[in-house]
Amino acid sequence: MKTDKKLIGAGLLTTIAASLCCITPV
């Protein structure tokens, strides 16, 4: 269960990071 939750958290962080990069490219 912990691994699944960790993977989900990582996925969300990756998605958010990608969105931020796309919106405001550095």
Description of the structure:
With 26 residues, the chain is an all-alpha fold. 85% of the residues lie in helices and 0% in strands. The protein contains 1 helix and no strands. The chain is rod-shaped, with a radius of gyration of 11 Å. The mean pLDDT is 82.
Order of helices and strands: H
Overall pLDDT level: 82
Question: Are there runs of 5+ residues with pLDDT below 50, and where?
Answer: none
Alpha carbon gap, first and last residue: 36 Å
Task: Tally the beta strands.
Answer: 0
State the major sheet. none
Q: Structural class, please?
A: mainly alpha
Counted by DSSP, the helix tally is 1
What is the general shape? Answer: rod-shaped
The percent range for helix content is over 70%
Strand residue content: under 5%
Gyration radius, to the nearest Å? 11 Å
Oligomeric composition of the shown chains: single chain
